[in-house]
Amino acid sequence: MTTCLDFIDNCATELLGTQAFIDLPAQALVKILSRNSFCAPEIEIFNAVKQWIETHPDEEPEFSSILAQIRLPLIKVNDLFEHVRESSLISPDQILDAIKDQNTLSSSQLKYRGFLFPGINIATVSFGAKVISGDFRTALLSNPSNYDEGVPTDRTFSKHLINPRDPGITIELGRPFIINCIKFQLMDRDQRAFSYYIEVSIDKNDWVRVIDHTLYLCRSKQNLFFESRVVKFIRIVGTLSSVNNTFQLCNFEALCSTEQFEIDTKTTLQIPRSNVATISNNAIVTEGVSRSRNALLNGDTTNYDWDNGYTCHQLGSGALVVQLPQPYLIETMRFLLWDCDDRCYSFYVEVSVDQIKWTKVVEFNECRSWQIAQFEKTSVVFVRIVGTYNSANEVFHCVHFECPAMDINEAIEEERMKKVQNVKASVTDYCSRASTSNISNERSNLNNKQENGQCNNFLGITENDNTFDVEENDKEEIIKENDEDDEQEEQNDGIESIEELLSDN
């Protein structure tokens, strides 16, 4: 059904003059005409409906519901008097109301129709788009999504001067399109940041602000969402550059996205449901020490040790600072503190949108491993993590950061699987080193130790060691996976000994 409706939308004008339109049943006609994406001149839609009514006099009970789909304020006044009024299908009061709406309502308040191409960038030359204001206009729509970083010239960017009288960068689309998403890349060859707003219009007179990032520092790729609306003109106006008085864009896309998203209508900010503090989302670490750049954001929560895989700072000096590419409304965060031993940490978290005013949102005391923060929903561009205590030394270490936080059950399962992997690695190592003869001896010795209540030091386990502190179902999972590997009988005997040991522990 959706495919058929999409096809009808794309051929709306052609369909109106065919016998296929006349043959449509009443309910199907109502469904088609009610779609914002059924885009054709409204007077042509009215004339086609008039012909349908004349052909189906027996469907009179359905006439009112069909005529209700005609958007009279979109019909010119002359056509309302010459065609609509003479048809006697629309009452004089309805015609007068339509004329009143044309004179009193802004274009953004009228219910326009537009062309719909889900998931396709329509801000391209092939779709008839063009840049009508700004400097170096041809660069904006011709640049690919990943612009050539080897050509650092001003002519690879479209730009405008930041001042109240400058109209900004304006794109005129080839036709009215239904869009809900705009993507572009800000000039990011250094650490510069920008503030801006975006307005859209159907007639270049009445503008509606759909994105307002004038209070936030933004960088690199911008993925912006808003409520679907019919648009013919898009205007991006820079209000601040951290380097000079020029606002620069590398490329630009506009589309009707099929992604699920949530927007706060008051701030126009996104409320993300998946982690946006990632390298792929262009988040960066601006402060903190690590052997690997952006290790805090690379998503690796297993491959870390005493030397690698974490980001740190000296207690009492500095912090870990993460910058998101654009502002989001955030209410949860998750942290993985370095936990290769039993040390614990204390730290607090502050957020900011401009690196000037910081707000503390959460504080943790003497905690370790995974931590989840929950706080009142707030605008976030910068996150500052400040360590205040380490039970082992004077350095704060963090392995992983994300916002918003993953589901807490996922965090628990991830920690459980990490423990399971530690035990599996120890079991495998033990089995590979043991021979047939000494495995038998170890089993005999192990049984003796179990009878005497002494098994805590086997394989280096101590009473305070949490590495092997796993649940019973984890142990069964380990043994089952080793059995399925079809290892030698002697190794299986060794695994059974480890199982007995874990059960006692």
Defining traits:
505 residues, disordered C terminus, Jelly Rolls, 7-stranded antiparallel beta sheet, elongated
Could you explain the architecture of this structure?
The protein is built from 13 helices and 16 strands. By secondary structure, the protein is of the alpha+beta class. It folds into four domains: 2-105, Serine Threonine Protein Phosphatase 5, Tetratricopeptide repeat, CATH 1.25.40; 125-270, Jelly Rolls (Sandwich), CATH 2.60.120.260; 284-406, Sandwich (Jelly Rolls); 413-504, no CATH class. Strands 1, 2, 3, 4, 5, 6 and 7 form a seven-stranded antiparallel β-sheet that branches. Strands 10, 11, 12, 13, 14, 15 and 16 form a seven-stranded antiparallel β-sheet that branches. A two-stranded antiparallel sheet has the order 8-9. A hairpin with a 6-residue loop joins strand 4 and strand 5. The relative contact order is 0.07. Residues 148-152, 449-475 and 494-505 have low confidence and may be disordered.
